[in-house]
Amino acid sequence: MAARSVVALVSVAEVVAGDLADHLERRGHYVRQARQPWEAESLLSAGGIDVVVVGDDVSQAEGRELLKRYGGEGGADFILICRPADLVDKVLALELGAADVVQSPLNVRELAARIGGLLTRRGRNTQELIVLENATVDLRSAMVMHRSGAEHQLSPGQVALLRLFLASPRKVLTRDDIIAAAPAENADAFDRSIDSRIVRLRRKLDTETITTIRGAGYRFDPPTPRGD
């Protein structure tokens, strides 16, 4: 199993840091925090950090200094948060090699997605994403991310059931197939419990891709990709 990626939050506003850490940890990443730039020195000098997010509580000069010392070739990727008026500082940070500069106020979910993109490019992302009609599912963290912004956690049994359908697209799976490959999370695995599991999974995924084939079983029909 690949090592979990590590994200450092440096002087990120407390409310944002709490929400962002929650997003990242639920997706399988480690989060380290430093409230002040001087605390970041010991954190970053120890190495092992994949992405550093520098908040706008840090002066742009201090942020750039951290970037010069700990970013670049072989270092961590840096995302700097800046205020809308700091255009010159934004350009300077990008010229110094910042991977991204985002303006505050920001959307935490969007920032988490930007971090995920950087980790993917580093080959360190632990996500395994499945795109459905109304939601995206990260199978490794068992997280359902709806287009509305809501998120739900899948149970281990629901992940096993979804993986079974994904492995057999457009194939009718009988109740026996499901019980054998994705058993229920308790001993009550009678026929009617399969129906209940399917209903709960459909509801959590907000999907119509899992179809009941009367008298035969269930079939997963992958959604048609959306056009541009």
UniProtKB/TrEMBL annotation:
Matching InterPro entries: CheY-like_superfamily (IPR011006), OmpR/PhoB-type_DNA-bd (IPR001867), Sig_transdc_resp-reg_C-effctor (IPR016032), Sig_transdc_resp-reg_receiver (IPR001789), WalR-like (IPR039420), WH-like_DNA-bd_sf (IPR036388)
Gene Ontology CC, one term: protein-DNA complex
DNA-binding span(s): 127-222
Domain annotation Response regulatory: ranges: 6-119
Cross-referenced Pfam families: Trans_reg_C
GO MF terms held by the record: phosphorelay response regulator activity; transcription cis-regulatory region binding
GO biological process: regulation of DNA-templated transcription
Signal peptide positions on this chain: none
Domain OmpR/PhoB-type: 127-222
Domain of life from the UniProt record: Bacteria
Key words, A-Z: DNA-binding, Phosphoprotein, Transcription, Transcription regulation, Two-component regulatory system
This protein's record includes keyword Ribosomal protein: no
Protein name (database record): DNA-binding response regulator
Origin organism lineage: Bacteria, Pseudomonadati, Pseudomonadota, Alphaproteobacteria, Hyphomicrobiales
